[in-house]
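--- STAGE predict ---
source: upstream dedup step, 1 unique chain passed
mode: sequence only
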Amino acid sequence: MTDMSAPLTIKICGLSTPATLETALDAGVEMVGFVFFPPSPRHIETTSARALCAIAGARALKVALSVDATDDYLDEVVAALKPDILQLHGRETPQRVAQLRARFGLPVMKALGVSVEADFAALSVYEEVADQMLFDAKPPKDATRPGGNGHAFDWSLLANRDFHRPWMLSGGLNCETVEAAIMATRPPGIDVSSGVESSPGVKDSALIETFMARARAAEARLAAPLGSMRESA
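--- STAGE serialize ---
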């Protein structure tokens, strides 16, 4: 069960410009994600990663997202971004997760695609080797990437489930859905990408600010004593 006394962790993924990164940081985001996956419209080159790393500094945890990447490519990514966390968003096996965690000495967040109850069958094995889990909607059959597709899954699948690692909710979150998602699932963390974009891969500063404000409002509602919540209803 989620400890609602702990602060909600918000991650904005797929940042690629100094301006939108600054917006996210100024809004108080805890994690900033950078995508290293060429088929994605959010992909950045390692040269850009160095500049964004300098802007982020220690203001938020830097997350490097990759999809079934090779060791050589991840060596290049880690050297450029100097991430705090590796996010594995492909079909990496538990063995691969453990290998990369040992290779780089960094915490690993493993994404798990969800559409039905059976998709949680692999959870316990991944929790043994990953530091954190991220639950995302399974991509459509014609999708060119495993995440960032703007689709949600059935949040009720998370109900009454015990987790042994911190986790984040992803998939279909945007300014219109984030409050309901937080109230329904009470997650330790949330992750948004396409939900704060004006077009694929183009982050929108106004949407980032609105999303952050609404997520914090939902967090405050959950943390408020029951009586005060009734009074404000």
